[in-house]
Structure formats: C-alpha cells, structure tokens
Amino acid sequence: MSYSIIGFGAVGQALARAFARKDIDVTVASRRPPETLMQPARAIGPTVAPATLRDAITSDTIILAVPFWEHREVAKQLASWQGKTIIDATNAFGVAVEDLGGQPSSAVVAKAFTGASFVKGFNHLPAAVLAADPNVKGGRRVVFLSSDDDSAVVPVAALAERLGFAPISLGPLEEGGSLVQARGNSWARLIFEDLVKFK
C-alpha cells in the first residue's frame, strides 16, 4: 500500500510527522515544486518524500490536506479515481453554505473524485495536536472517520491504527460527517474535541 499527502501546510506536515513517527513511507506534494518541500520534509524524517502532484496521485491512498476549494484542482488530474482511496482532511470554514448547494462539504469533495473510495478523516484536530504523539497517558488519541461506504472505512481505520490513533467511525457523510465539518463560519460539535480512548 502506498500513501501520499497532497498539501504540505500545517495539516499536511502534521500528518507527515505521524507517518514518520512510525517509519511509514509517504509521498508529499503541493502546488510548489518538490524541491521547495525538501527542507521541511527532511526535518520531519527520511520516510517523507517530496514529489510532483502527478507522482503523488499514483499512490493507492491519498490524503487531501489542501485549502477546501483546491480539491477541485487535484480531482482534475484523473478522469476516474477508481481503485484509489481518498481521505478528506479538508475543512470548509468560511465557505458559504449556499456555495455547497446545501450538502456537507465532504459530499462536495467526494463527488469530485469519481470512482474513489472516499473517507472523511483526520480533519477535526488542530495541526499541532495532530502532529503530537497520539499515545496519551496510556490511551490513544481519537480520530473520527465517516463515509457513505462502510468498506472504504476499513483500510483507513487500519491506517489510523498503524499511525497510533484510535479510529472511531461516525457513519455516513450526511450524518456523522456533519459532526466534524464547518458550516459557513461555525464549527460542528466534534471539531477540536481532543478525545483519548483507553482499552
């Protein structure tokens, strides 16, 4: 299984740290040329490899960590995303509700990636918390996942476990996904909730 993070701002780098902590190879890409990402990538760890967007989208699992509307530019790269898993870590804070056509923001993103297995996840924690060790006082930091396809959640939950997190499925995008999304200029109930799961 190969992994990419598209977007190398605060959230993208936080996710890259999670991969590096577990020595899991991950490709990172952004609007900038790969050579401009080299220094921060090296600072994170040797398993973090900058690449072009075209190279990054060849991965099996792709995490979107871009500003919300930039998902459209990524989606244009392929006519069909069949066989790929897209993890949507974007947030639509400040995006007008009417611009989303009344849909949850994740449903808008999902529609752009035709054929992909789509999961909303890794978006409810601030970047600094997401970057920190998820092992907390003998428990594991929770990450919420939601999808309209239960089978898509399984490998993403397994990845979250490998990264040291405790995944919790919230169900479909319309219901569970709405608990971890911005709506206009307000945040949903579970955004920023830093929860720890103990066995």
From TrEMBL:
This is NADPH-dependent F420 reductase. Residues 4-91 form the Pyrroline-5-carboxylate reductase catalytic N-terminal domain. The keyword Transport does not apply. Keywords: Oxidoreductase. Coiled coil: none annotated. It comes from Paraburkholderia podalyriae. Pfam families: F420_oxidored. Gene3D superfamilies: NAD(P)-binding Rossmann-like Domain. The keyword NAD does not apply. InterPro entries: NAD(P)-bd_dom_sf, P5C_Rdtase_cat_N, STEAP_metalloreductase.
